[in-house]
Amino acid sequence: MKFLKSPVKKDYSTQYSLEEKVKNIIDDVKTNGDEALIKYNFQFDGNDRKLLSISKDEIDSAYEKVDKTLIEFIKAAASNIKKFAEKQKECIKPLDDFETSPGVFLGHRILPVSSCCCYVPGGGYPLYSTALMLAIPAKVAGVKRVVACSPASKETGSISPYTLVAMDIAGVDEIYCVGGAHAVAAFSYGTSQIKPVDMIVGPGNQYVAEAKRQCYGQVGIDFIAGPSEVLIISEEKGNPSYIAADLLAQCEHDRQSKGIFITTSNKLAQDVSVEIERQLNGLETRDIAEYAWENNGEIILVSSIEEACRISDEYAPEHLEIHVEDEDRTISMLNNYGSLFIGEYAAEVFGDYISGTNHTLPTIRASRYTGGLYVGNFLKVCSYQKINKKGVDSIGKAAEALALGEGLYAHAKAARIRLG
């Protein structure tokens, strides 16, 4: 393994300060409720609205501000996401009355969570596609109350019309104009205007991620999302234009985003470097993409695809693209990734928007232990047992003995009393 381009070393000295700032925001919201939300909305987003919920009139107005053709494309994306979520849900089945011992019947039920909040980022871009990715699987799962929130645009004092339209198409029940750590606190603990939820999903900036971490337990979460990342593996026949385009597409998210390229070909590595510089010229988001690539981008030269796969599994990337001849063999060597894009035509952008897989994916090596958001995140697999007298006779003495072995005498008695 040889690094042809390495990232700049990161400084994590400000992490403690971030934790303290977020803790103070959460405590303020818990104590002062809507007053704190309104204060932070104005402080961070210039949003001075007092009523946080979005009205139907605002949603209707948003449709008038969005190009009709784009609305149809949003609906097409929503349809694909829904179809895939429905197919995934079919794989999650209840289990009825499995008999482990005579008279002992076990099973599980599949139950949706009652409520969730879909956090849709604002920031530099109105990421309306995220509204689809979060709310549609929740709806397919059967969540009764699907809420969404997003920070206000500084220009309008309301949520971006693109985001409002996407939220409405996704079937969101309630929409609130609030973002940041204070929004996470509000939906975790509740305020006068905002009823708390059982689960919060969706990406956000470092304050949102830290707030989700601190509120976890009070509320369920999907995972802690960090800066977005893509890793591309390619042999010598890879297309440098495609690879460079996909790396820059990732880098333009924000200055912390990361693009990693692993290849068996020194020539392709050099060609991709040249192509990145060429494509940066004239790119509207060059200031962000170039900064992210220069500071976080990596190019790694390896001796084999096997080595590339081992390195990729160590990185455990959010998005993983493979541009190789023997796709099946390569896939068999890969275990850690949020979502896999197979072949040079399977660009990450298609998964981000329209193909139907979810783009809410684990970052910062979390794909070692979790996959991306899907309909199953909103479903609880809850076991049950049904035992008759025959069942008590078959397992009662064992239960009594096991309880006595642990010194739990009331447990033992609860078994013994049923044995008669």
Whole-angstrom Rg? 25 Å
Order of helices and strands: EHHHHEEEHEHEHEHEEHEHHEHEHEHEHH
Strand content: 15-25%
Q: Label the CATH architecture of the largest domain.
A: 3-Layer(aba) Sandwich
For CATH, the homologous superfamily of the largest domain is named as: Nitrogenase molybdenum iron protein domain
How much helical structure, as a percent, in the residues? 40-55%
Query: Helical region count?
Result: 16
Please report the total strand number as a whole number: 14
Mass-distribution shape: globular
Q: Separation of termini?
A: 70 Å
**Structural class by sheet pairing and helices:** alpha/beta
Could you give a short account of the major beta sheet?
A: 6 strands, mixed
What are the low-pLDDT stretches, counting only 5+ consecutive residues below 50?
A: none
Level-1 CATH class name of the largest domain? Alpha Beta
Mean pLDDT: 96
Q: According to CATH, what is the topology of the largest domain? A: Rossmann fold
